[in-house]
């Protein structure tokens, strides 16, 4: 019995391993920090349950306020982790949201969606949409959360995310554009090291053949109903609705040494050709790898990335 339980069926190290007996071992992103008041940034956080039955929740962040009636921009953040690891309660994400909320003087809603493989994609999208509808329920000041009722400016909303979370942020922006989200005006989306792909090799991808299959296999593992790497959920360039993205401003952040770098640039080109009426800009961090800002948040490049997102939210 022990030998069977120790046999690995799927190995996506350093993210996750699945054993033949069905056991799931997450190798990263399992640490949890409670909500708190952070004395360094003067940001307070709390957790809210949005759907108890479906285990959908969010961590809300609010900066120090001088005016108790002040309305602030609202940032909805979707964490990364290949759709299968990490949470808003992981130390790197908690710290990152504290910093962004403090510097941008915005309210942050960090989304807790259910993860693959127990809850395969597209469940992460549906959970994220559930959170967005919950956020929108505060448009008239009569929603379930007092922080959002009192201080969130739902006419000045931003989505952001990294890696798989950037994929989700993009999909949510498209969904707002195609289905609408009454009471919410989406101003912009910031995508950091987006988890996008495609069948055709672009840029430097062909030089990194040993890594290519891992990307596609991870996607098919987390979304077993997918048609493959050209699924519009994974390759926005193949989505006929791309031009209906709800906002008019997009910031794409890429990293020079990231396997996914060229997909960020390709996303910019695809968006500009789609008939979308907006402005998309790209920021590239030299000498850095995938989600470097979470691993080394005090580095110069990480601070530059943070400041660029803050400027994006503040229209400066």
Helical content, roughly? 25-40%
Mean pLDDT: 96
Q: For the CA atoms, what is the radius of gyration?
A: 19 Å
Percent strand equals 15-25%
Unreliable residue stretches: none
**First-residue to last-residue Cα separation:** 61 Å
Question: Structural class of the helix and strand makeup?
Answer: alpha/beta
Query: Largest sheet, if any?
Result: 9 strands, mixed
Order of strands across the main sheet: 4-5-6-8-7-9-10-11-12
Q: H/E element string?
A: HEEEEEEEHEHHEHEHEHEHH
List how many beta strands DSSP finds.
12
Apparent shape: globular
How many H/I helices? 9
Protein traits:
9 helices, nine-stranded mixed β-sheet, 31% helix, alpha/beta, 316 residues, three-stranded antiparallel β-sheet, 24% strand
Any chance you could write out the topology, listing elements then pairs?
Layout lengths: L1 H4 L2 E5 L3 E4 L4 E3 L10 E2 L4 E9 L4 E7 L9 E7 L12 H14 L2 E6 L10 H14 L9 H6 E11 L1 H16 L6 E7 L16 H14 L26 E7 L5 H13 L5 E7 L6 H4 L4 H14 L3
Parallel strand pairs: 7-8, 7-9, 9-10, 10-11, 11-12
Antiparallel strand pairs: 1-2, 2-3, 4-5, 5-6, 6-8
Helix pairs in contact: 2-9, 3-5
Quick structural gist:
The chain is of the alpha/beta class and 316 residues long. The protein has helices spanning 2-5, 91-104, 123-136, 146-151, 164-179, 209-222, 261-273, 292-295, 300-313, and strands at 8-12, 16-19, 24-26, 37-38, 43-51, 56-62, 72-78, 107-112, 152-162, 186-192, 249-255, 279-285.
